[in-house]
Amino acid sequence: MEDLRKLADAQREPLCTALSLGVIPTIGPYLLPRVLPALEDRYPHLKLNIVEDQSAEVLEQLRRGALDAAVIALPYDCEGLLTFPFWQEDLLWIVHADDENAGVESATVDDLARTHLMLLKDGHCLTEHALAACNLETVATHSFSATSLSTLIQLVAGKIGSTLVPDIAVEQLVRGNRQLRAIPLAEPGPHRKLAIAIRPNYPGMADIEALAHLFGEKLKTAKKN
Questions:
Q1: From 187's CA, which of 11, 139, 159, 201 has a CA 20 to 30 Å away?
Q2: Is residue 199 packed enough to be buried (19+ CB in 10 Å), middle (13-18) or exposed (0-12)?
Q3: Other beta carbons within 10 Å of 127
């Protein structure tokens, strides 16, 4: 009955009814403030329910129908689902301004190996993306079981070590903080892609296309600014 209702809703204007959207913690805090005002302005009848959790959990909820769509970072195992990429970005190395490597133009694996590299605890896909970005499997990391990028940034500010963050988060977490330096990686990118995932039989395709277009548009505008 729910699918039938959504099929009927799909015949209306995009994003004019309820939509449950999963989002992962390494995207949500940095994407949502940029897109929610535009969503409210362009689609005033949209009733958006947002659930934040790690990739495995939001995709599980998506597969069983508890969510309509999920915003995730690729590459990730999305077997049985459709994905619609709307943005791609690099990771940046965050070090303290007093770090001996703070003046390098781009960071190599050797540079990262000379500091204590701190990453999010297992289960966050960003950790896997970071390890893959520079073949970091051989680089020793500090394990603080951190669950947020904000915590890692505070540890860097306290001269505990360094970390990697996605470009989408740099404006909010790093810029304006004179204690920190954001350094591009020497390895070519993009290091991850942001995408909306849905079930293959999801009837609201127009809603997803409208979301993906708006998300990409707002991130492009923010990048220019």
A1: 159
A2: middle
A3: 18
Q: What are phi and psi of 151, to 5 degrees?
A: -65, -45
pLDDT tens-place string over residues 29-70: 999 999 999 999 999 999 999 999 999 999 999 999 999 999
19 DSSP β-pair partners: 48
Query: How many other C-beta atoms are found inside a 10 Å radius of the C-beta of residue 40?
Result: 11
Is the CB of residue 167 less than 8 Å from the CB of residue 90? yes
C-alpha span between 93 and 114 (Å, rounded):
13
Dist CA 125 CA 38 (whole Å): 28
First to last CA, the chain: 45
* Contacts of 38 by beta carbon, 8 Å cutoff, 6+ apart: 214, 218
In this structure, the strands spanning 162-166 and 82-89 are unpaired
CA 219 and chain centroid, separation: 12
Q: Write out pLDDT tens, residues 142-195.
A: 555 678 999 999 999 999 999 999 999 999 999 889 999 999 999 888 999 999
- What are the Cα distances from residue 25, in Å, to 46, 149, 170? 23, 9, 14
In this structure, how many other beta carbons lie within 10 angstroms of the beta carbon of residue 76?
18
Please, where are the H alpha helices in the chain? 2-9, 28-42, 55-63, 109-113, 125-133, 149-157, 167-173, 205-224
Identify the pLDDT of residue 9: 58
